[in-house]
Amino acid sequence: MHTIKPFYFPTTVTFVDDSATFLSNLCLQLEPQLAFRLFSSPGEALEFVNSRPRPGPSDEPLFAPFRDRTDEDVAHQVIALSVNTVRKQVHNAQRFLATSVVVVDYDMPGMNGLEFCRRMTDPAVRKIMLTGKADEHIAVQSFNEGIIHRFIRKQDASAVATLNRAVRDLQNAYFDNVCQSILDTLADSEYAFLRDEALAERVAELSSSLGIVEHYLSYCPSGLLMLDSAGSAYLLIVHTNETLRGLREIAVEQGAPAGFLNALDSRRSLPYFWQTDGHYPPECVAWESYMHPATQFSGHQDYVYAIVPNPPGLDLSQVLSYDRYLERLDGTK
Predict the structure, then answer these.
(1) What are 52-97's pLDDT values in tens digits?
(2) Domains of the chain with bracketed CATH
(3) Could you tell me which residues carry 4-aspartylphosphate (predicted)?
(4) In the chain, helix, strand, coil percent, each to 5?
């Protein structure tokens, strides 16, 4: 099922082959925006891979006990998801260092590719084995046992194209794995839109048109914080009929003028009240300045979404962009 990942960002792919010449030729044929490290020593590569941070929030708990303030029974605690913790990953300058995919040769002195894969400590990392003709039966057996996720024959004419495609697919598969618990937790919340396949396709189209390379679940209002490779930010606001009703009710309580309510009801524009957690501000005068063009979309349910370029209130000035990370990475090779 095609879903919207609660978070995604580019990671650094590790290539391991005892032939430095093969690696040098290979890296010239990889996709230009791919972050990668090359190792001709399996031992050094294993130490590197096992020391990488795992993608995901790490500085504070993602899930925490939550109890409604009106509930006096502590036994009724549930596990609540901190959406703020998900979004704060964008401020982690180490996020691109994570390894989600390893590409390893089989026939290497001291440690073959199969042993290398067995000694990796993060079982979620996807593994691609590059093999020579003589190693093919070993690769097939390893694939069938689930030790590796793909195998590619070095001598195939389409090997590089297949490799580029496999790396892309397995990076996505890795994030599907690490995001699964978040998706399960949010299944019955205002973030249920993440599982809407039709909306996921629309978000993919929007991301492609804007050159988005990373995104993070956002809140108040709900949606996605998206960044392109240069670090330019966009906030995708997603509303359902239910969340719009809640927004409207609060606006009425705050004395919003008829003009605002009419604009909201038209579904042609959406507000981004960044100073008041998405809600209509008390005594708001210039509400028009907070409005952004919106689009209606029907999937499993009806949505209204808007894209806010350079969203205020998120303090993104010091965020490390992916382009800048690639420049730094090139300087270490």
Answers:
(1) 877 665 544 444 444 443 444 444 334 456 778 888 899 999 999 9
(2) 7-57+90-185 (3.40.50.2300), 190-333 (no CATH)
(3) 105
(4) 40, 25, 35
